[in-house]
Amino acid sequence: MRTPFTGCGTALVTPFTRNGSLDEAAVRRLGRRQIDAGVHFLVPVGTTGENPTLTNAERLRIVEILVDEANGRVPILAGAGGYDTREVIHLAADMQKVGAQGLLSVTPYYNKPTQEGLFQHYRAIAASTPLPIIVYNVPGRTGCNIEPVTVVRLSEIPNIIGIKEASGNMTQMCEVCRSVPSDFIVLSGDDAVTLPLMAVGGRGIISVVSNEIPSDTTRLVEAAERGDFAAARAIHTRIMPLMQINFVESSPGPVKCAMAAMGLLEEIYRLPLVAPRPESKEKILNVLRDLNLLNKPALT
Q1: Torsion angle of alpha carbons 51, 170, 224, 289, nearest 10°?
Q2: Where do the domains of the chain lie?
Q3: Model confidence over 54-84: pLDDT tens digits?
Q4: How far apart are CA 122 and CA 143, in angstroms?
Q5: Cis upstream peptide for 252 (omega within 30°)
Q6: How far apart are CA 40 and CA 38, in angstroms?
Q7: What interhelical angle do 85-97 and 56-70 show, nearest 10?
Q8: What pLDDT score was predicted for residue 233?
């Protein structure tokens, strides 16, 4: 049986208007599209949501809109991480107030804490909130890796319920799955390794590609959950080019470019992020054409 924050969760992009402000109508529309497509939970204001360039007020407003739109149909796992433990604790409290049902908390970046520092950071956050926490390990962005032994220590804290593993190290992911308690949730943080991670005990994905194709990504995960790896592999093989092209440049540039081409949002970024280069955009469009994703009417 699936528990909350297992299965397919979408790491939602953040849409902006032409004047650079938050596009609240598009936030609601994109959230509804995901829920209607069958995804299992929503993950706003994370890396894919351009979190570093959002104000706290914007982060909270996005979560508030999605909580209202979901209306209990799916849970909201809100991004709440950073390199100042005290600030993360304050943000976690604010996320609880606006209705988030859980927190995705990325490791501190730039100050590069030790393994003991990471443990104490997450223990302090967990002690401050009743919300369940999923730790987010993405050393390629943060310069900081949570080692499996530290994950095991964190798994002993009651409301630290899982980890989003985006280390890119499959051996490490296997070791985490082998070492943690059976009820501790290990999620892929990289679409391309969702299937192999689930084969060794992972419980799903916090996905970028599901922004574009939520139904296909959900079906892949559900097939793997029921042990139908042939069906999951068929979906994985077909959509792998889109998983890959989403990272032809720094994410979320490519996925927002693709979604704009699909008529889902305005292609607007906040500096220092910019649109993909013309040659990258053409590659993105070619993949969308191959998957027949450019012939669908724009959502309103």
Answers
A1: 60
A2: 7-240
A3: 999 999 999 999 999 999 999 999 999 999 9
A4: 17
A5: yes
A6: 6
A7: 30
A8: 98
pLDDT digits (tens, 9 = 90+) for 77-100: 999 999 999 999 999 999 999 999
Q: Say what the pTM is.
A: 0.96
In the set 83, 110, 164, 283, the catalytic residue is 164
CATH architecture entry for 7-240: Alpha-Beta Barrel (3.20)
136, 256, 281, 283: the active-site residue: 136
Which residues, at least 6 apart from 2, have a Cβ–Cβ distance to it below 8 Å? 40, 225
Report phi then psi at 205, rounded to 5: -145, 140
- HSE of 136, CA atoms in CB hemisphere, 13 A: 28
256 classed as catalytic = no
CA angle 215, 278, 17 (to 5 degrees): 60
**Sheet containing 204-207: which strands, arranged edge to edge?**
41-43, 7-11, 204-207, 185-188, 160-165, 133-137, 102-106, 77-79
223 vs 250: CA distance, rounded Å: 30
Is the pLDDT at 155 greater than 50? The verdict is yes
Distance CA 230, CA 138 (A): 29
The residues that bridge with 135 in the sheet, in sequence order, are: 105, 163
